[in-house]
Design a protein that fits this description.
Elements (H helix, E strand, L loop, with lengths): L1 H64 L1 H11 L2 H8 L6 H14 L3 E6 L4 E4 L2 E5 L8 H8 L4 E8 L5 E11 L5 E10 H15 L2 E5 L5 E4 L17 H11 L1 E8 L2 E10 L4 E8 H4 L1 H41 L9 H18 L3 E8 L2 H8 L1 H18 L5 E6 L2 E7 L3 H22 L6 E7 L6 H17 L5 E3 L2
Parallel strand pairs: 15-16
Antiparallel strand pairs: 1-2, 1-6, 2-3, 4-5, 5-6, 7-8, 7-11, 9-10, 10-11, 12-14, 12-15, 13-14
C-alpha cells in the first residue's frame, strides 16, 4: 500500500512543479519584458526629449541670468559716453567712476570696470584700483584680451576689488572708430552667484545642472550625487570618459554609471559664453514608477501563481480520489470491486494472523434476483443492488471489507470474528437488507449466505471457496438462510 500511495503523491508533486515552472517562467518573462520595454521608453523619453527640453529651458533662463551680463559688457564697450570720455583724454576720474557705479547698481553685478589702453589704468566703480603691468600675474588677462580676435571672453579670476573673491568676468574689447584697441570693459558675477543659478535651475527643472569650460573645468554647479563640486568634470568617476567625449564632440546625449547610479546626460555648447551646459538626471528616479509596477506585477503574479497551484492541487486531489474510487469501487453500488477487495482482504487476513485473532468470510446472494429484473426491469433491479450495498454498509464495521463479488453476489471479510460471530453478522446483514428493500421497493429481497472461518494454512481463495460452498448449500436448502461451512 505504501508504494501505491507514494506514486500518486510524487506524480502530483511533479505536475505542480512543472506547472509552477511554466507559470513562473511566463509571469517573470512577461514582467521583465514589460519592465525592459518601459525602461527603454523612459530612457528614450528622457534622453531624447526631457533632457533636451530641460537644456533649452535652462538656456532660455540663462539668457536672463547669465547672458544678460554679456550684453551689458557689449553695451559698455560700444557706449558713446565711454568712447567720448576716452577720446577726451581721460582728463577727469569722476565721470567714469560714476558711470561704472551706475552700471553696477542698475544691473546688480558684483563689479563693473574699464581698463584703458592709453593709461593702463584699471577703473572701478570705487575709483582707480591700479595700473596694469605685463609683469604681474593677475594682469595677464588684459594682455590676453588685447591680443585675441574674438570680441570678448568669459574668464574666472580673483577680483582685486572684492578681496580676491573668485569672479566670473566678461571681458569685452573696446574698439575705436578705426578699429583701434582702446581697452577692455565689462562686468563680473561671483562664482557663488553662478552656483546659485545652477542650484535654482536644478530645483526648477528637477535635474542636475552645471557648467564647464572647454577644458572641463567646472565653473558652477555639480554632477548628480556629489555633495562637493570637483575641480573638473573629467575628474569624476564614471563621468570622466563621457565628459571627454562630450567636450570633444561639442555635446550630445550620453549615459554613464556614477555615484548616483545610472545617469542620463545631455551636453550642449553655449557659444555665447563659451561654456558647456551639462543637464543630467538620475535614471533611478525616473524609473521608480516602472520598478514599482514590476514589483506589483510580480506580487500579483505570485498571488495568481499560489491560487493556480492551490486550485490545481485541489483539482488533482479531487480527480485522483475519483479515479482511485473508480478503480477500487463498483460504479453501481459503491462497494469495493474484486481487485481492490483482494488487496484489502489479504491485508486484513495477515493482520489477524499476526495478532492471533480469528478471521471469517461471508458471501451473500440475492434470492430470485432474475425475477426482479424480469418483472420490474433492470433499473429497478439496479436500485435493489444499491439498496443491498447501502444496508450492508450500515450493518458492518469499518474494519470489515465488503465488495460486490459479481452480479448479485456480495462478499465480506470479517477480521476478529470466529464462525459464530460471523454467522451473527450474516443474520444481521440479511435482516437489514430485507427491511431496506421492503421499504425502498419494488419488493422485499431475501439473501442466502455462506459463512466460513479461516483455517490454519488457508489463504483467501480457500476461505472464499468454502464460504461459496456453504452458500450453494443454503440455496439448495430453500434460500433465505445462512449456512456455516465445515
Amino acid at each position: 500500500m505504501k508504494s501505491y500511495l507514494c506514486r500518486p503523491i510524487d506524480d502530483k508533486r511533479r505536475l505542480l512543479a512543472l506547472l509552477a515552472a511554466i507559470l513562473i517562467a511566463g509571469f517573470t518573462g512577461t514582467s521583465v519584458i514589460a519592465y525592459r520595454a518601459a525602461l527603454s521608453g523612459v530612457r528614450a523619453s528622457i534622453g531624447g526629449s526631457a533632457l533636451p527640453v530641460a537644456a533649452e529651458s535652462v538656456y532660455a533662463r540663462l539668457q536672463r541670468d547669465l547672458v544678460e551680463p554679456l550684453y551689458i559688457s557689449s553695451m559698455m564697450a560700444n557706449d558713446a559716453f565711454l568712447h567720448a570720455w576716452v577720446d577726451g583724454g581721460e582728463a577727469e576720474e569722476a565721470p567714469i567712476v560714476s558711470y561704472l557705479r551706475e552700471v553696477q547698481r542698475r544691473y546688480g553685478t558684483i563689479t563693473a570696470f574699464f581698463v584703458s589702453e592709453r593709461t593702463r589704468r584699471y577703473y572701478h566703480s570705487s575709483g582707480i584700483l591700479k595700473e596694469m603691468s605685463p609683469d604681474e600675474w593677475r594682469d595677464a588677462w588684459y594682455w590676453r584680451v588685447r591680443g585675441m580676435d574674438e570680441p570678448y571672453e568669459i574668464n574666472i579670476d580673483p577680483d582685486l576689488a572684492n578681496a580676491d573673491e573668485l569672479t566670473v568676468f566678461i571681458n569685452y574689447r573696446v574698439l575705436g572708430n578705426e578699429g583701434e584697441f582702446l581697452g577692455a570693459a565689462g562686468v563680473g558675477l561671483t562664482v557663488n552667484a553662478m552656483a546659485g543659478i545652477a542650484s535654482r535651475l536644478r530645483d526648477e527643472f528637477g535635474t542636475a545642472v552645471y557648467f564647464a569650460d572647454p577644458d572641463g573645468f567646472l565653473v558652477a554647479g555639480r554632477p548628480a550625487g556629489l555633495d562637493v563640486a570637483p575641480a573638473s568634470v573629467t575628474a569624476v568617476p564614471g563621468l570622466a570618459e563621457v565628459a571627454k567625449r562630450a567636450l570633444a564632440s561639442g555635446g550630445g546625449a550620453f549615459r554613464y554609471r556614477g555615484v548616483a547610479g545610472e545617469t542620463l546626460l545631455h551636453v550642449r555648447y553655449l557659444a555665447e559664453i563659451g561654456w558647456y551646459l551639462f543637464v543630467e538626471r538620475e535614471e533611478s528616479a525616473s524609473i521608480a514608477g516602472s520598478r514599482r509596477a514590476l514589483g506589483m506585477n510580480l506580487a500579483l503574479y505570485g498571488l495568481i501563481l499560489g491560487l493556480a497551484l492551490l486550485t490545481a492541487g485541489l483539482t488533482v486531489d479531487r480527480y485522483r480520489r475519483k479515479l482511485e474510487k473508480a478503480a477500487a469501487h463498483d460504479p453501481l453500488t459503491g462497494a469495493l470491486n474484486r481487485l481492490a477487495f483482494s488487496a484489502v482482504a489479504d491485508h486484513a487476513i495477515k493482520d489477524s494472523i499476526r495478532a492471533g485473532q480469528p478471521v471469517s468470510a461471508a458471501i451473500f446472494d440475492a434470492d430470485d434476483f432474475k425475477a426482479v429484473n424480469d418483472r420490474y426491469g433492470h433499473p429497478d433491479g439496479d436500485r435493489v443492488l444499491k439498496t443491498i450495498a447501502d444496508a450492508a454498509s450500515g450493518a458492518l464495521r469499518k474494519s470489515d471489507a465488503f465488495c460486490r463479488w459479481g452480479g448479485e453476489e456480495f462478499l465480506c471479510v470479517l477480521p476478529g470474528c470466529d464462525l459464530a460471530s460471523a454467522a451473527a453478522v450474516a443474520e444481521k446483514l440479511r435482516a437489514a437488507v430485507a427491511a431496506e428493500t421492503r421499504a425502498a421497493g419494488p419488493k422485499a429481497v431475501t439473501l442466502s449466505a455462506g459463512v466460513a472461518q479461516l483455517k490454519e494454512g488457508e489463504d483467501l481463495d480457500g476461505l472464499v471457496r468454502r464460504a461459496d460452498d456453504a452458500l450453494l448449500a443454503a440455496k439448495r436448502a430453500g434460500k433465505d438462510t445462512a449456512l456455516l461451512a465445515e
